[in-house]
Amino acid sequence: MRTKVGIIGGGPSGLMLSQLLDLKGIDNVVLERQSREYVLGRIRAGVLEHGFAELMREAQCGARMDAEGEIHDGFYIAENNKKMRVDLAAHTGGNSVVVYGQTELTRDLYAARDKMGGTVIHNAEDVKPHDLKTDAPYLTYRAGDEIIRIDCDFIIGADGFHGVSRKSIPGDVLTEYEKVYPFGWLGVLSRTKPVSPELIYAKSPRGFALCSLRSQALSRYYIQVPLSDSVDDWSDDAFWDELKARLPDDVAARLETGPSIEKSIAPLRSFVAEPMRYGKLFLAGDAAHIVPPTGARGLNSAASDIYYLYHGLVDHYLNGDDAGLDSYSQKALARVWKAQRFSWWMTSLLHNFPDAIPYDQKLQQTDLEYLFSSEAAMTSLAENYVGLPF
Ligand code: APR
Ligand code: PHB
């Protein structure tokens, strides 16, 4: 088989790039290790920045997002029975975010690939990129007993944090920067009315909590837990009690509880791999970088990679210009690090750090007080939360 662009990974990054390239007549193949049911069964975050929503529209996948997603032009930060609103629109010249589940967005991208007759190969085992430093790179994968080869011009590693792409860059070329936080988030999805129409990020002496939503009938809540906890340690009742204890009294009193339909723990990690290009291989999304979920940046830093790669590949194929591809790693990393900084900052502001000394706690408190007493600080939070320009 031969294609122009071989894409490893059928998550949001890989599918979005595949769809955008196909719309420009650039043929590509997506290789996904899992089944479609498995990919669409993963519960992921649900806040899309303005720029990502625009990319969905450009990919002709935005109709359901626009019909069913909710525009949010603010959210709350709560502490000590106080709720303070972050007015995103007022501090960004009218910008906002879209609350729309990443699972739904992936479903829309698959539907769009199907409609255009795009090639997405599921259950592709042992995917391997080869000859990345030559002009004839190729991919192999196994389907049953058969090894299949796909010759390509370029290979895109959009296969998430645990994928094979980053691992195929030699260790003396790649530098990895990592920060692991000493806690995780326990998340619960429930078919209950959300406690607040807008998100509430809550700082409390018992630890961080987040009230989010997927729709007006589907809530998503999180609490900070020690890394040693497992899902089995948390009955639904225990989860609801702990969540209430971390929220302002009036919010806790209104909280509608019900059976969890999904419950999982995710560790918090910041990670960046540099460079994001090795020969004919380009890394994108979680394959190259991850953020803790506090600033809702995960999908959004993937979006800027896809934007730069898409334009670089279009310039290569349609205009014979390689400047975009040649500057990809540098440009993508500049924005990646800004999302890293913001996610680290919001995580540091709102969580309980088990090893914090009293001095650290005072600084954290001061940071929050400064935020709500300074228009400049609030503008900085708002512009980062809605997303810096690509
Ligand atoms: N071969 C083929 N596919 C693979 C391989 C492999 N060796 N390893 C992983 N994959 C697939 C995974 O099954 C997954 O479907 O690659 C896909 C990667 O998707 P994601 O992990 O969702 O990463 P990405 O598409 O970059 O999405 C960006 O935004 O909100 C954040 O972390 C969240 O996943 C989200 C991310
Ligand atoms: C979510 O709804 O899952 C969500 C929202 C905002 C975040 C993280 C997760 O910052």
SSE map:
Elements: E1 5-8, H1 12-23, E2 28-31, H2 36-41, E3 47-49, H3 50-58, H4 63-68, E4 70-72, E5 74-79, E6 82-87, H5 88-91, E7 97-99, H6 102-115, E8 119-121, E9 125-130, E10 138-143, E11 146-151, E12 154-157, E13 175-190, E14 200-203, E15 209-215, E16 218-225, H7 236-246, H8 249-254, E17 260-274, E18 277-278, E19 281-283, E20 289-290, H9 298-319, H10 323-326, H11 328-350, H12 358-371, H13 375-386
Parallel strand pairs: 1-2, 1-12, 2-8, 5-14, 12-19
Antiparallel strand pairs: 3-7, 4-7, 5-6, 9-10, 10-11, 13-16, 13-17, 14-15, 15-16, 17-20, 18-19
Helix pairs in contact: 1-6, 1-9, 9-11
This protein binds adenosine-5-diphosphoribose (APR) and P-hydroxybenzoic acid.
Describe the overall structure.
By secondary structure, this protein is an alpha+beta fold. The protein has a domain at 5-72 and 95-177 and 269-352: FAD/NAD(P)-binding domain. Helix content is 37%, strand content 28%. It is built from 13 helices and 20 strands. It has helices at 12-23, 36-41, 50-58, 63-68, 88-91, 102-115, 236-246, 249-254, 298-319, 323-326, 328-350, 358-371, 375-386, and strands spanning 5-8, 28-31, 47-49, 70-72, 74-79, 82-87, 97-99, 119-121, 125-130, 138-143, 146-151, 154-157, 175-190, 200-203, 209-215, 218-225, 260-274, 277-278, 281-283, 289-290. It has an 8-stranded mixed β-sheet, with helices on both faces. A 6-stranded mixed β-sheet has the order 8-2-1-12-19-18, covered by helices on one side.
